[in-house]
Design goal:
By secondary structure, this protein is an alpha+beta fold. About 50% of the residues lie in helices and about 10% in strands. It is globular, with a radius of gyration of 24 Å.
């Protein structure tokens, strides 16, 4: 299997995927300048096991919520794609159909469609989410889940290397939780996956697939779906959902994860289900107020930037079209008219011509 990871065609495909949409950045441009030589060098390092990941670059985003993003060097992102190209299909066939994050043919909007599908067939819902999901993911538990499927020691060497490179990256984002049987040394357990790595998104699904099977097979919940660490269970029985809540909390404790228990309430689907930035009802969907407020601020700022000549109309339009493409999956026609009609577009100032006799 490791031969498939380091073969030239796979490394070239990994480079193309890693560079997609980022070819104008300095790190990608430097790699592209001698791309063949750099891929040959990377191939030799992986074959000889002399490859070592580089340091992460960290920055913080605040929408839709505050998160610390850790970006690996570009050559490491190529390696992440090369690894996932080969091993992800082996796990993909094991994932349940109702897991929607970071999977081909799935995604946010299909997850919203599925929530509404269940809301039309069941009376009650229990929605839950994991506390500090990426900072909490335990390396030993994840490593075992990967090793249950991947048996090639050379591939596991690369998995271990990438895992170790992210240990502690989110330590300042994690609040220590002690589970039954822990001693004081539990605080030193390696944990956390850098938000921003392709491998982190994939390994999150590997880690959480145990929960998927527990809910579907052990609990026998027929109406269940998950998007990263947000998941929902549906039933016509409130009593059953409360019992399932306790069982899920106990199961996740074996995976060293906790949920926001206070927020995890059984509620009628008719009151609306908060889900991925929307509120989903059996009959319609609304956009969460926070989403509208955040876009309004961003739109007004971009209009001002366009008017002052700091961004092009194409950049302004791309931002607007991206938002419209997302929110059109809810009943937002009137909201879009109000927000987009609030700010009048003014053309940017034209460059002034030099006066007669003025040197250019």
């Amino acid at each position: 299997m490791v031969a498939s990871i380091v073969e030239w065609d796979n490394l070239w495909l990994a480079y193309r995927k890693a560079a997609k949409g980022k070819r104008s950045t300095a790190s990608v441009a430097r790699f592209e300048f001698q791309v063949a030589d750099r891929l040959v060098e990377l191939q030799a390092e992986l074959q000889s096991k002399s490859y070592r990941p580089g340091p992460y670059t960290h920055f913080t985003i605040h929408e839709p919520k505050r998160r610390k993003i850790s970006a690996a060097p570009f050559r490491d992102r190529v390696v992440h794609h090369a690894l996932c190209n080969v091993i992800e299909p082996l796990f993909e066939e094991r994932f349940i159909a109702d897991s929607y994050a970071n999977r081909v043919g799935k995604g946010t909007h299909k997850a919203i469609d599925r929530v509404q599908h269940f809301a039309r067939r069941y009376r009650y819902v229990l929605r839950m989410d994991v506390v500090q999901h990426f900072p909490s993911l335990d390396h030993a538990i994840l490593r075992q889940a990967i090793a249950d499927v991947i048996h090639d020691p050379d591939v596991l060497w690369l998995v271990d290397l990438i895992l170790a490179s992210g240990a502690g990256v989110l330590a300042d984002e994690y609040t220590m939780v002690y589970f039954p049987g822990d001693d004081l040394w539990a605080i030193n357990r390696p944990r956390g996956l850098p938000i921003g790595n392709l491998t982190s998104q994939f390994w999150s699904n590997v880690y959480m697939s145990g929960l998927d099977y527990f809910v579907k097979k052990t609990l026998g919940c027929r109406a269940y779906l998950r998007y990263v660490d947000d998941f929902a269970l549906f039933s016509d029985s409130k009593k059953q959902l409360w019992a399932w809540k306790r069982a899920v909390i106990d199961y996740l404790a074996t995976q060293r994860l906790t949920v926001h228990e206070t927020a995890a309430q059984v509620q009628p689907v008719a009151t609306g289900i908060p889900w991925l930035g929307f509120v989903v009802y059996p009959t319609h969907r609304l956009l969460k107020r926070r989403n509208a407020v955040n876009f309004t601020r961003r739109f007004e700022r971009n209009v001002d930037l366009f008017a002052s000549g700091n961004i092009t109309f194409a950049e302004l339009d791309a931002s607007v079209q991206g938002w419209i493409n997302h929110v059109r999956y809810a009943d937002t026609w009137g909201l879009r008219r109000i927000i987009l009609g609030r700010k009048r577009l003014s053309p940017p100032p034209r460059p002034t011509k030099p006066s007669q006799g003025q040197h250019v």
